[in-house]
């Protein structure tokens, strides 16, 4: 402030005025004019000095943020408009309307890229249960838990417990359980002769929160040698439940080390997206109506929508800065709003092959899905976008990159002029009218 006053005083003295300032807040920094008797026209000079002082004051007190160029301002305006579109799009009512989940007015023409039968859910399979067991993700993991529990009493008990820990719990719960078990086992390995390290009080808060709350945690401890017992603590207290490892099991250091290593390197049971193949026969004179996509198709829940909104707000600033190709690629991945997409392939003889795919899968995955349904292995074909009237090229692009999410109809165009039928007899026989 002292430097500011000195500079301002010099400016004012050149105009014929002296200015007095105090060290009060910026709102009180209004110059008080003292007129010199040997100078004329004080009113004009006072006005000029006041304007100069106010201008200097604004320059000193304003924010240090650099002024944006016209181009940057235009970019920010565009970004803000896009952000507002995203806000509206995140609104459930807007999103439902946009996705065609509500019936369109009778007078509105429905484009062919929309279709109508209700899709109940997305289904999955896993090798443990077999490809013929297709369930929703929740139902599949319930059946998987039941199966793994039946394996706990076998020689694969440790492995089954590890699969349970990794497959049936959230990451934070899983990590806490693994960390706690690691401490239990490490203490036993270091103090195998001390019984206090081979005993775990089951009512202990840490045990309840870190082990009992994790599906598979208790099963792992029992699989490596802990047994559940009732023991009375010192005094006349009531017996309590403990997990106790015998001295003999504690001496099996190699078994404990191997089990702990397996736990730390464990993996969840791989699950696979079930294509949920359906075959339809369509009336060539009618357009296909829009299906109702289940919530499973969308990547964002309520909390994820809030997070996505924050990411959108960050994009306003990002648009005004230079970014590497790698950084832009990571941002593009964030914009995927769907996990899955429903693809319908229409054959020249008016059948539709329907399947569910992940948005990151390629067009080749659709081809591999379609080929086994065809009447001959020699049929060669291309996929065509009926709206853009162009051939779809795979070339490393995902279904989302090709604009085929969360739903799309594409046409199968044979390379040769074939009369048909294009599908196997069993598929034609099971086709439903669409």
From TrEMBL:
Residues 336-412 form the UBX domain. Signal peptide: none annotated. GO terms for cellular component: cytoplasm. CDD domains: PUB_UBXD1. InterPro entries: PUB-like_dom_sf, PUB_domain, Ubiquitin-like_domsf, UBX_dom, UBXN6_PUB. It comes from the Eukaryota. PANTHER family: UBX DOMAIN-CONTAINING PROTEIN 6, UBX-RELATED. This is UBX domain-containing protein. It comes from Diploscapter pachys.
